[in-house]
Design a protein that fits this description.
Layout (H helix, E strand, L loop, with lengths): L8 H13 L5 H24 L5 H11 L1 H11 L2 H12 L1 H18 L4 H12 L5 E6 L10 E2 L2 H8 L3 E16 L5 E8 L2 H6 L5 E2 L6 E4 L1 H8 L9 E4 L2 E8 L12 E5 L7 E8 L5 H15 L8 E5 H26 L4 H7 L5 H30 L16 H23 L10 E6 L10 E6 L5 E8 L10 E3 L5 H4 L4
Parallel strand pairs: 4-9, 6-8
Antiparallel strand pairs: 1-10, 1-11, 2-10, 3-4, 3-7, 3-10, 5-8, 6-9, 7-8, 12-13, 13-14, 14-15
Helix pairs in contact: 1-2, 1-3, 1-4, 6-14, 8-11, 12-15, 14-15
């Protein structure tokens, strides 16, 4: 009897791939499916070998064709009714709902590169590092929203104010900036006085703050414009067609009103256009006292009559404004949901009874987790979209501090709460699975003594939910949930 030829490496690898793919095939059909694929591979090898066509190209083709076993196994698996039943049951599970919401939150995190705006907001909320740093703007009685201040006001306040520990002027604009002859890039340029860095409390990691004209780069601009050149101090930077010497580079943690790369063009005094003011408030000073003092100085020194026209924006209030907006939106949405879904305190008393307490706590925990994840998705999606890297967080210029974001939050929270409550109503009160097998009962036109609506069953046999189309005249508020005992569960529950 001739000895069986040893299988080549490519054939052995193909047999191994078939064995791995066979794990997807239902157990009852697995062996037959494996034998069929192995026989096909063996006959292909034998035919090519005996005809002299067993070349390297044919070996690679055999391996490639064997990968089709995974598609065949997946198709065979997907065609099984039992598999679809399990998938449907999995989709009804409360854990699938929570996993889907958590996956959506992770997707938002990945798309936004780690939720930078949310992390910035939460870090300030946690440590309160902003202190009493405030920005001063002009909000005239006529002529629209916030505007800049006259340039001579800031030096007058710096010389005569007793309530400010320091004040500096600055301007914001975008200009073409280039380094070492590179193509100009439109960059945020902040014209500022040297005192600005003392007021915000930051020191450079490279170089020093110039007292006269010079350029200071933040970390993002240093990396994007100069490719993090450690010897950048002393080199020239072209800003709007003029050359300026680079004097310092700021540390990575520092952000001034925006996350986009920014350069600071230092001037001893800013004399052109209008300016904004950044200041540090002394402890114990109220906004009313400060407004009275600065208005008096503007009138006595510079002859500006600014009564009720100064606007004060504290940095921590600007950064945390989305939190307060979201709280207002959540309160409004909760009140509307309570009215639409007819919340009644008797349901709370019923849930607090000893026999219902455990089941009610489980339902409340699931609802809280589901709503919290969905609300977190709404919060971070709206915040990251409104406060993008190019946004400027300065009073009315901050897109995260306006009515548009508030309306987005209101619509988002309303959608989440309405969905969460509707989803909760459609779940089993025992296992929290979505109810299934809807059956229409009764005739909508026969409501004198009859009942019309839909009945839904728990697939595990825990109960039946009645959803009336219209309540009959003799029963204004029927108990819609019928709890079934264990003897019914074999009719509905899927085999484990």
């Amino acid at each position: 009897m001739p000895r069986e030829r040893k299988h080549p490496v490519s054939v052995a690898v193909s047999f191994a791939l078939v064995s791995v793919a066979a794990r997807l095939v239902p157990r009852a059909q697995r062996e037959e499916w494996k034998q069929e694929w192995r026989a096909e591979i063996w006959h292909c090898w034998q035919f090519l070998f005996h005809t002299g066509e067993w070349t390297r190209r044919e070996k690679l083709r055999l391996l490639r064709n064997t990968l089709g076993a995974f598609l065949d196994a997946a198709w065979l698996l997907a065609s099984q009714e039992a598999v679809w039943d399990r998938l449907r049951e999995l989709a009804r599970s409360p854990f699938s709902c929570l996993a889907a919401l958590a996956g959506l939150l992770l997707l938002l995190t990945a798309l936004s590169s780690g939720l930078p705006a949310t992390r910035e907001l939460l870090s300030h909320a946690a440590n309160g590092s902003a202190g009493k740093l405030l920005f001063i703007l002009l909000h005239p009685e006529m002529g629209g929203g916030d505007k800049g201040l006259p340039t001579d006001l800031v030096p007058a306040w710096a010389s005569h104010s007793r309530f400010l520990r320091g004040v500096a002027a600055f301007q914001l604009r975008h200009r073409p900036v280039s380094f070492a002859g590179a193509h100009p890039a439109r960059t945020l340029v902040i014209d500022a006085q040297p005192a600005l860095f003392d007021i915000v409390g930051i020191k450079p990691k490279i170089g020093g703050i110039p007292r006269e004209t010079g350029v200071v780069l933040d970390d993002a601009a240093w990396r994007s414009l100069t490719h993090a050149d450690p010897a950048v101090v002393g080199s020239k930077l072209n800003v709007g067609g003029a050359e300026y010497g680079v004097a310092a580079v700021l540390p990575p943690r520092f952000r001034f009103l925006s996350r986009q790369p920014a350069i600071f063009l230092i001037h001893r005094e800013i004399t052109n256009g209008r300016v904004f003011a950044v200041a540090r408030l002394r402890p114990g000073v109220t906004q009313k006292q400060l407004d009275r003092e600065l208005t008096r100085i503007a009138q006595d020194v510079c002859y500006y009559f600014l009564k009720s026209q100064l606007r004060f924006a504290f940095q921590e209030d600007m950064l945390l404004a989305p939190l307060s907006m979201f709280g207002v939106a959540l309160l409004v949405a909760s009140l509307l949901a309570a009215m639409v879904f007819r919340f009644r305190f008797k349901y709370v008393r019923l849930a607090l009874q000893p026999r219902n307490r455990q089941a009610a706590a489980r339902r409340a925990l699931f609802f809280a987790a589901k709503a919290a994840l969905a609300l977190a998705c709404v919060f971070v999606a709206c915040l990251e979209w409104s406060r993008s890297a190019s946004s400027v967080l300065l009073a009315s210029q901050d897109p995260g501090n306006g009515p548009f974001l508030l309306w987005l939050y209101i619509l988002g929270t309303m959608g989440v709460l309405f969905w969460a409550l509707a989803d909760q109503r459609a779940r089993c009160r025992v296992c929290l699975r979505l109810l299934a097998f809807p059956v229409r009962i009764g005739c909508p036109g026969c409501l004198l003594l009859d009942w019309s609506g839909i009945e839904l069953f728990c697939s595990e046999g825990h109960g039946v939910l009645h959803v009336p189309h219209l309540a009959p005249s003799w029963d204004e508020e029927p108990d819609r949930w019928i709890l079934l005992d264990e003897s019914w569960q074999d009719l509905f529950a899927h085999s484990k």
